[in-house]
Amino acid sequence: MTTDSPASDAPLRVVALNCTLKPAPAESSTQLMLQQVLDALAEHGAAGTQVRIADLNIAPGVETDMGEGDGWPSVREQILAADILVVGTPIWMGHASSLAQRVLERLDAELSETDDAGRPILFDRVAVVAVVGNEDGAHKATADLFQGLNDVGFTIPAQGGTYWNGEAMQTVDFKDLEKTPDPVASTTATLARNAAHLARVLRAARYPAE
């Protein structure tokens, strides 16, 4: 199989969901981490923007549209238009944020949505995860998000998660660092390289229909 077709060389589309609990314009370590992921993806022809979930009225539920005032449909449109979804979350009490969980719950509605070939509508899309926190929990949050994202149809690339955990019981946040640690930057670069590669592979050779 080759991915050297014009379609595979076309720019990739990315949407990054910032699941910080802080509405704009508050500074957010998750925002900084996601921007670094977006910058790394841009080096591989993948462009996109962040959506801060706390700024929207994302209603609770497991439907694609929960009715008047629900902010999810506009987010869903961006997800469906993207080749790569990035979910970024802080750690709170050892877990991903409640807004990250709400994103998964709203994505659950896609299990009953299919394309013209009868395949789940989120097939052929890639998802990656970015986690920040000054307490333990990055591996668990990543694992939980991976499972949920894969369950609704996304494909996770090799080493598709990047994270930073600060020293436990301290107050230094990722955004407070003078420099991003080299291992974090290297992991983010690998995530971006593999995500862009996988997105182009799936664009050139889609999953089969039943």
Automatic annotation (TrEMBL):
**InterPro entries (alphabetical):** Flavoprotein-like_sf (IPR029039), FMN_Rdtase-like_dom (IPR005025)
Q: Which Pfam families match?
A: FMN_red
Q: Which residues form the NADPH-dependent FMN reductase-like domain?
A: 13-157
Q: Which domain of life is it from?
A: Bacteria
Indicate what this protein is called per its UniProt record. Answer: Multimeric flavodoxin WrbA
**Origin organism of this chain?**
Microbacterium paludicola
